[in-house]
Write a structure and sequence with these properties.
Blueprint: E1 14-15, E2 29-32, E3 39-43, E4 53-62, E5 81-90, E6 95-98, E7 104-105, E8 116-126, E9 128-131, E10 137-140, E11 157-158, E12 162-166, E13 173-177, E14 180-181, E15 194-200, H1 202-208, E16 213-219, E17 234-238, H2 270-286, E18 294-299, E19 312-313, E20 317-318, H3 319-334, E21 344-349, H4 351-362, E22 370-373, E23 396-398, E24 403-405, E25 407-410, E26 416-419, H5 420-430, H6 439-447, H7 469-479, H8 481-496, E27 500-505, H9 513-525, E28 533-537, H10 552-555, H11 559-574
Parallel strand pairs: 3-13, 17-18, 17-21, 21-22, 22-27, 27-28
Antiparallel strand pairs: 1-14, 2-13, 3-6, 4-5, 4-8, 5-7, 8-11, 8-12, 9-10, 11-14, 15-16, 16-18, 19-20, 23-24, 25-26
Helix pairs in contact: 4-8
């Protein structure tokens, strides 16, 4: 659910070096005051190339000088303003136009912007054309190594931030030039312990009609190079797009690191804490007694999101099969994995929690356990605060005399800072047809059938919140993990015995605990018994992982240490007769 901290390299600006044109400022802004209603024209310069451009043009206004506006857009209360328009075959040299009819967030229209001085910036999130195997042609933003972040995607064009006085009542035309381009991201280097792999997936390439790749960061156990006869269990740490293996650091914290306060955890110097825990993991990993296993983090960013949810999907393609049948065997062969289901395990939180559970349910024989922390909704009767099967509207609870907005995010005291409507409005501004790269849009892309236009069929109307019951039923039958367990337990139960372990805070910020309660109701009475674990953290927020001894701020930095002993214990208890449980235990 929550976007993980994605530690990408810093980006520099690259200028096109424009020549001055009449009415346009070089690398800047021109304003024609009092010349009709307020409008903003954004120009893609001819020097950007001769080919027409497809994408989403974004205009941002900010009152906060602390960072560029492109880094200040969120669904929280501190968000700045953004407007968005599609550009389809826009010729370089012709501007995209923002006027009062263009939808914005959180202010809906340009003519509703309060008069004032703002930092103004525009950005073009570029799309490419895909001709998919099933016959549809769609335009989508391919990931370019950044993990589907529109504000950091290499090749995107943007304007330098500038101060500008704006008053809708006075009107005028503002002109911006996209004279900067985000440069490519270098690949992370291999080290003794961390190796990086990337393979072309035949399954995904066929689906998308162009080369598609899967990657992974592989953490090698201590002694891997000195024990050539050892073969190792495989552990997948599911989660959001990782630039490099996250949370593993061979050196102590940077001595000159400036402490940064975490608003989320109210934790001074949280960046220092993160480095301390990453180095501690290195010491634990290389020390005596830590299980000698392979741990991988998968790179499966795609045209809709920073990962695929690790299942097959009508809109994303066969990512589940590609990971299980192509990527995992490749890694196990290259790095001496045992290569059998009894020696494969998964854990993860949030999106990674859903992926761990989803992969275990859909591939029950390929994995021997899933440790599932704060999972995205695993029962669509509690799709955060929406019941997809009974509610008519996702945005409001409706009574005979009044309506109440459904909350989208809260803190441990229950204080709400955004609604389901606002979160979806932001995504609609960032991208139509489910192309925002946001959380609700990726759920829709993974779970929905393909619409007539080739894009995911909406689960609800983004503007009104009216739910499409036919789409909800499709979701239920194909991806509602709770429903699938109840429907198929006679066949799944024996294969999943002892494999499902679910942890969530009872004050999860995104209300994810509600779905876990519903799953637990079934699992407690399931026959055969599920023989797993469901546990709750008292007043714990997103993303609690079962650690009752530490605050959430630090327990979330210890997934590997938390689950490795549990994995080792289960592996030794369930390994088949004659299995290799010795070569890797040194």
């Amino acid at each position: 659910m929550e976007s993980a901290v994605r530690r990408l390299l810093g980006f520099s600006c690259v200028s096109f070096g424009l020549a001055t044109a009449v009415g346009w400022a070089v690398g800047g802004t021109a304003v024609d005051a009092q010349s009709g209603p307020l409008r903003v024209e954004v120009l893609v310069p001819a020097s950007a190339g001769s080919q027409p451009i497809d994408g989403r043009m974004l205009l941002m206004l900010s009152t906060d000088p602390a960072a560029e506006p492109r880094f200040q857009i969120s669904d929280g209360v501190k968000t700045q303003q953004v407007f968005g328009v599609d550009v389809d075959g826009l010729p370089p040299g012709k501007p995209a136009v923002f006027d009062a009819a263009v939808l914005g967030y959180p202010v809906a229209s340009l003519d509703q912007v309060p008069p004032g001085t703002y930092t103004v910036q525009a950005l073009l999130h570029r799309y490419e054309t895909f001709r998919r195997a099933e016959g549809h042609t769609v335009k989508l933003p391919m990931d370019r190594g950044e993990g589907q972040q529109w504000n950091r995607a290499p090749g995107n064009l943007y304007s330098a931030p500038q101060k500008l006085a704006i008053d809708p009542k006075r009107g005028g035309t503002v002109r911006l030039v996209l004279d900067q381009v985000i440069p490519p991201i270098p690949d992370p280097p291999d080290t003794r312990y961390v190796k990086h792999v990337r393979i072309q997936s035949d399954l995904l390439t066929k689906f998308w009609g162009r080369p598609m790749f899967l990657g992974a960061h592989v953490l090698l156990p201590e002694g891997w190079d000195t024990h050539p006869q050892a073969r190792y269990p495989l552990v997948i740490n599911h989660g959001h797009f990782p630039y490099d293996f996250d949370g593993f650091r061979e050196t102590p914290p940077d001595p000159g690191l400036k402490p940064e306060h975490s608003d989320r955890f109210n934790w001074p110097g949280y960046n220092v804490t993160e480095q301390e825990h990453a180095h501690q993991f290195f010491k634990d990993w290389t020390g005596p007694g830590f299980p000698r296993v392979l741990i991988i983090e998968i790179q499966h960013a795609n045209p809709y999101y920073d990962d695929s949810y690790a299942v097959n999907s009508a809109n994303l393609g066969p990512y589940g099969d590609a990971i299980v049948k192509e990527l995992i065997p490749y890694i196990e062969k290259r790095f001496r994995g045992i290569g059998q289901g009894w020696a494969r395990f998964m854990y993860g939180g949030s999106t990674g929690g859903w992926e761990a559970m989803g992969a275990q349910v859909f591939y029950p024989d390929e994995f021997n356990g899933a440790y599932i922390a704060c999972p995205d909704p695993i029962d669509f009767r509690a799709y955060t605060t929406v019941n997809l099967y009974e509610d008519a509207n996702a945005y409001d609870r409706e009574g005979p005399w009044r309506t109440v907005a459904r909350p989208g995010h809260r803190n441990y005291l229950g204080h709400v800072d955004t609604t389901v409507r606002d979160m979806n409005r932001l995504e609609l501004v960032l991208g139509t047809h489910g192309r925002s790269g946001g959380q609700w849009d990726i759920w829709q892309a993974v779970y929905s059938p393909v619409g007539a236009d080739g894009y995911p069929k909406p689960i609800w109307d983004k503007r009104t919140g009216v739910i499409d019951r036919d789409v909800a039923n499709y979701w239920r039958d194909h991806y509602d993990l709770s429903y699938i367990l109840r429907r198929d337990w006679a066949a799944l139960g024996p294969k999943l015995r002892g494999k499902l372990h679910i942890y969530v805070g009872d004050m999860d910020n995104y209300y994810l605990n509600n779905a876990v309660y519903l799953v637990e109701e079934f699992l407690k009475t399931a026959k055969p018994a599920f023989e797993g674990e469901v546990d709750y953290g008292d007043r714990a927020e997103h993303c609690w992982n079962g650690d009752h001894t530490r605050p959430n701020a630090t327990s979330r930095l210890r997934y590997h240490q938390m689950f490795a002993p549990k994995i080792l214990d289960r592996l030794l208890k369930t390994a088949p007769a004659g299995a290799d449980i010795t070569s890797w235990r040194y």
